Amino acid sequence: MTPKEVQAMVKRGQEIVDQNLAGMDFRGLDLSGGMFIESDFTGANMSGANLKGSIFATCGLSGATLERAVLDRCNFHRVDACAAMMAGATMHGTSFYDSRLADARFDGVEGDVIGISNCDLAGTSLRDVKSEMLVFYGARLDRTDFSGAPLDGATFYQADLRTAVFARCSFEKCIFSECDLSGQVFRGQTFTLCQFPDANLAGCDFDEATLRQCNFKGACIEGGSFRRAAAAHSVFVGAQLGGVAFNGGHFFQSVWADARLDGADLSGAQLEQCVFHRARCNAAKFPDARLAYADFSYADLSDADFRGAMLMRTKVHRAVLEGTQFSDRGGLLLQDAALYEAEAYSARRPSHRDPPQRRGEPGAATEKDSRP
After folding, report:
1. Residue 291 structural domain
2. Of 56, 72, 152, 213, which one's alpha carbon is 20 to 30 angstroms from that of 85?
3. Which pLDDT belongs to residue 152?
4. pLDDT score of 261
5. How far apart are CA 126 and CA 118, in angstroms?
6. Residue 322 burial class via C-beta count within 10 angstroms: exposed 0-12, middle 13-18, buried 19 and up
7. How far apart are alpha carbons 67 and 54 in whole angstroms?
8. Is position 350 within any domain?
9. What's the structural domain count of the chain?
10. Where is the composition biased (Basic and acidic residues) (predicted)?
11. Beta strands in the chain (DSSP E)
């Protein structure tokens, strides 16, 4: 079968099934809407071809060249595209499922929504990829290179990103849900409105990073570093922050409720108006931190060090203060009248509604007799 014969079959709406098309030259051909099933395109050249709306199911594309090809709304299902060359292709609404994409090159690809689910992208290059919504679900991303890519709006779900390369990337409204980013270095990089829910960020380096309104809810960041980071209005609710270095960071109005900060170092950090409700701060270090209007109500501050910290109306309502060190307690609010009132009201209020009484039980209302 020749490339022209393949094109003619596609135009007639015929499926291309179980064909050996390895090494063929399809450059610039219009193959849009093609249905390619269990066919071999190994080493084929499809540079500049129009494959819009095509489906590749269980096909071999390893070593194939699709540079500058139109791959809009294409569906690649269970394909082997290892070492395929797709640089400069357009991928608007393109999806890859259960495919092998290791060592492939997607450099400079442009698209709106690109979905990659349960694929192997080990060693794959996505340098300078431009996508409005890049979605990775359960993908293997060992040594995947995103250098220079604007990852704005990207979503990574349950992805192993420990060895991925993010040099010079920009991050805005990115989601790293349940991802493993442990040991990554993001020093000096900028994240805006990004979310890291339940992610593994152990040992991550965010020194001098800008983290505008980012969410680390439930994340494990033990042993990480946020030295001199700018992270105002960020959320660390329920995060594991044991031993993390926050020295000199700016965390104005951040929320740390239920976080575990055992042994964390917040020396010199700006923590004005931060909320630490129920946080566990055993042996945490706050020397020279700015804590005006911070709220440690119900927190465990056992053996914490606040010497030299700037305290002004800093709440420690019902906090555990055993072994806590202060240079001066003058700026502390040991009791919060409003919280006491709320506690008293809660104690008076029944925790559950009384169950409805059944007919015939003592005190139950009796039905009026409707007989004349």
Report:
1. 181-341
2. 152
3. 94
4. 97
5. 17
6. exposed
7. 16
8. no
9. 1
10. 352-372
11. 16-17, 35-37, 55-57, 75-77, 94-97, 110-117, 130-137, 155-157, 171-172, 175-177, 190-192, 210-212, 305-306, 314-315, 325-326, 332-333
Distance of CA 301 to the CA centre of its chain: 30
CA pair distance 68, 73, nearest whole angstrom: 15
In this structure, what CATH number is given to the domain that contains residue 216?
2.160.20.80
Which 8-state DSSP code applies to residue 111?
A: E
Report mean pLDDT in 10-residue bins for the chain, 372 residues.
94 95 96 97 97 98 98 98 97 97 96 95 96 92 95 94 95 96 96 98 98 97 97 98 97 98 98 98 97 97 96 95 92 74 64 52 40 37
Say if 158 falls within a structural domain: no
Instruction: Please give the Cα distance from 372 to 368 (Å, whole number).
Output: 11
* pLDDT value, residue 347: 64
Structure token pair of residue 84: 């395929």
Model pLDDT, residue 336: 62
Q: What is the pLDDT of residue 34?
A: 96
Quick check: is 304 in a domain?
yes
Distance CA(61)–CA(56), nearest Å, equals 9
In this structure, what token pair is assigned to residue 4? Answer: 């022209």
Residue 345: strand, helix, or coil? helix
Environment class of residue 60 by beta-carbon count within 10 Å: exposed (0-12), middle (13-18) or buried (19+)? buried
Tell me whether residue 105 is in a domain.
no
Q: Look at residue 328 in the predicted model and tell me its pLDDT.
A: 87
Per-residue pLDDT at 363: 44
d(CA 244, CA 324): 19
